[in-house]
Amino acid sequence: MRHYFTVVSHEVRMLLVNPFTYVAAVLFLGVTGFMFTDLLEEYTRAPQELSPANGFFQMFWLPVIFMVPLLTMKTIADERRSGTLETLLTTPVSTVEVVLGKFTASYLLYLMLWLATSAFFLVLSRFPVDPRFFATGPLIGGYLFMAVSGLFFVGVGIFTSSLSRSQPVAGILSSTLLIGLIIGSNLVNGLEVFNHSSLQPFREILSYAQVFDHLQDFTRGIVDTRHVLFYLSGSCVTLILSVLSIEAKIIHS
Questions:
Q1: Which helix (H) or strand (E) holds 123?
Q2: Cβ neighbours around 56 below 10 Å, total
Q3: What is each CA distance from 38 to 31, 44, 205, in whole angstroms?
């Protein structure tokens, strides 16, 4: 891992000069800003049981399904399209270092964008409103959830980027997998067919993968190690698959 930090530094610089990074940042802050504004309007119309942080993070999936693909689709797909990936791997840098470096750089930017949304709550705190608006538990739990779940989400983006030479294809694949992971698991778990006793193990697996349930636990201040393990193991699996995908394509090229 001697070249890991060199790869991370290079990838961060590449992300900062990539126009898709700024497109992702503008879209992300625009969508989250609209979500936050709409949320506050609901509070002005009628009292709500939950704090604004709960409502804000319940909509996390919307910015995630377009931000992650925009941040990750170029990472490996463009290297393969331009032929620079094979050149890079002829140097002492290993495939694992390349994948981990690209993953780390994308994840750091993902965290920075979510941290930028804390400015919404900071601005709100400047006005005299109900102190329940600033319940620290849901706020800290929500950001902790985004940090932990982001490991898996960004890993999915890196994996799909390793599957194709085309950035748009990688982006579409990433969005599709993220929608399936975040929303699809909820919908499938609600199907009556899984009420049959013989399918009970599948229901338990689907229940374990319920992303929205994980979020609710985090915002209630419950940090369940099973949820953390789910995202860490998911991240590891996607990164291992990314390494294997690159190695397989190099062998067959």
A1: helix 118-125
A2: 22
A3: 11, 10, 35
